[in-house]
Amino acid sequence: MAFNKRVKIKTILDTNPIGTEVTLMGWVRTKRGNKNVSFIALNDGSIITNYQVVADPNLISEEILKKCATGACLKVTGNVVASQGAGQSSELNATSIEVLGEADPEKYPLQPKKHSMEFLRENAHLRMRTNTFSAVFRVRHALAFAVHKYFNDKGFFYIHTPIITASDAEGAGETFKVTTLDLKNPPKTSEGGIDYKQDFFERETNLTVSGQLEGELAAMALADIYTFGPTFRAENSNTTRHLAEFWMIEPEMAFYDAEDNADLAEDFLKYVIRYALDNCAEDLAFLDTRLQEEEKVKPADQRSEMSLMDKLRFVVDNDFVRITYTEAIDILRNSNPNKKKKFSYLIESWGADLQSEHERFLVEKHFKKPVILTDYPKDIKSFYMRQNDDGKTVAAMDILFPGIGEIVGGSQREERMDVLTKRMEEMNIPQDEMWWYLDTRRFGATPHAGFGLGFERMVLFVTGMGNIRDVIAFPRTPGNAEF
Ligand code: ATP
Ligand code: MN
């Protein structure tokens, strides 16, 4: 049973075992050649580079060679030899080829040519077999690993918060309902509403929009925790930055104030990006070139001034700018696009919610650096954010990235019971349902803080892809749940 005695292409490229016999398994990207020899470019997913298999028709039958078409899966045994051709240092002289899975070239959707992103989204079940998507998903893996490594090394504990909840943490109401009731004939209350008492959980439930509230409970015991799980938002925003199902990382720390929170977030973002730079060199180099080609076809004024690698290094090497919301409003109000009425939403007065066009102006045009915006008006932020002494603002922070806009949202939490319950009253948040949350303020409360990073926005930034649908394997967006 030597089926799995295969060697990964990455290992061959790392160790260059010239003169040894190895078995490779992988998928054919292309085949070319003539009567006397065939060259098969094989890819096994371990690395972006294809490995060249040289097949001599005296050793490999014509019937087998015919089946080595783009998309087919092969087991190839042969000898590693120094390569004659340019572009690779070694290649495999095949002594036997077994076709593990054929792919009919007439029917296989992925051809060795450039496909549009839209076509590849429609073929998301196959798109990971392309260079672009395999690179994206290897980088995505490295980033996820770096997240866990960062927090583990710092003594944070990974908490799995529930996916089904009865609370709508943001109070935004953009939740997916969870029910086992018969939708055609649900039980009714005497008032005519749906009787959720008869539902599975004996109450109304939904998919979580955030693990923060439960994360806060854990932080009141383990001090430094983080969550990393799926979150769901039924917001009908068909943008390149929103998914209906996305992964969020939410650290929550006891004994942290707003400044500690911002320091951690900046250090964390830099660490994760540096990890990708150090560990995904080949994939990032490929994605850098891909982005440059994509930029070339854009009109000159829309082109990014920096390459992908420049952008990543720039974030790692520079301090983020920290300004208050109030300072940002002054900058925006006096900005050219505001005066010339170029913004879709003009900034007229203090209190306005910032749109992505404003966030991107601050980051990309004004500061040309990531920006940490703090101390937002309390009326545009959530009930749990700590009120500042001015009575108007809360200790919130949003981190804004070039090309992305908001990548992190966080705050110091309101630990003072009287201030918190007053705010909940003003915002019509039912306190009886939240008794468990309020217990943390009743018993052993302490200053604490945390933030949420949308994982796909991070992957989007690091890979330089243009659409969030292209950095998650099977995107969920309005009207789209095919795979
Ligand atoms: P936005 O204003 O961009 O919709 P938000 O204010 O709703 O973001 P938060 O509720 O603070 O975002 O969520 C924390 C983080 O989760 C955001 O900073 C962002 O990185 C990410 N995020 C939020 N909504 C989505 C979404 N629909 N798809 C992907 N990531 C998201
Ligand atoms: Mn949102």
From TrEMBL:
<comment type="similarity">
    <text>Belongs to the class-II aminoacyl-tRNA synthetase family.</text>
</comment>
<keyword id="KW-0030">Aminoacyl-tRNA synthetase</keyword>
<dbReference type="InterPro" id="IPR004365">
    <property type="entry name" value="NA-bd_OB_tRNA"/>
</dbReference>
<keyword id="KW-0963">Cytoplasm</keyword>
<dbReference type="InterPro" id="IPR045864">
    <property type="entry name" value="aa-tRNA-synth_II/BPL/LPL"/>
</dbReference>
<feature type="domain" description="Aminoacyl-transfer RNA synthetases class-II family profile">
    <location>
        <begin position="137"/>
        <end position="475"/>
    </location>
</feature>
<dbReference type="Pfam" id="PF01336">
    <property type="entry name" value="tRNA_anti-codon"/>
</dbReference>
<protein>
    <recommendedName>
        <fullName>Asparagine--tRNA ligase</fullName>
        <ecNumber>6.1.1.22</ecNumber>
    </recommendedName>
</protein>
<dbReference type="InterPro" id="IPR002312">
    <property type="entry name" value="Asp/Asn-tRNA-synth_IIb"/>
</dbReference>
<dbReference type="GO" id="GO:0004816">
    <property type="term" value="F:asparagine-tRNA ligase activity"/>
</dbReference>
<comment type="subunit">
    <text>Homodimer.</text>
</comment>
<dbReference type="Pfam" id="PF00152">
    <property type="entry name" value="tRNA-synt_2"/>
</dbReference>
<dbReference type="GO" id="GO:0006421">
    <property type="term" value="P:asparaginyl-tRNA aminoacylation"/>
</dbReference>
<keyword id="KW-0547">Nucleotide-binding</keyword>
<keyword id="KW-0436">Ligase</keyword>
<dbReference type="InterPro" id="IPR006195">
    <property type="entry name" value="aa-tRNA-synth_II"/>
</dbReference>
<keyword id="KW-0648">Protein biosynthesis</keyword>
<dbReference type="InterPro" id="IPR004522">
    <property type="entry name" value="Asn-tRNA-ligase"/>
</dbReference>
<dbReference type="InterPro" id="IPR004364">
    <property type="entry name" value="Aa-tRNA-synt_II"/>
</dbReference>
<keyword id="KW-0067">ATP-binding</keyword>
<dbReference type="GO" id="GO:0003676">
    <property type="term" value="F:nucleic acid binding"/>
</dbReference>
<dbReference type="GO" id="GO:0005737">
    <property type="term" value="C:cytoplasm"/>
</dbReference>
<dbReference type="GO" id="GO:0005524">
    <property type="term" value="F:ATP binding"/>
</dbReference>
<dbReference type="InterPro" id="IPR012340">
    <property type="entry name" value="NA-bd_OB-fold"/>
</dbReference>
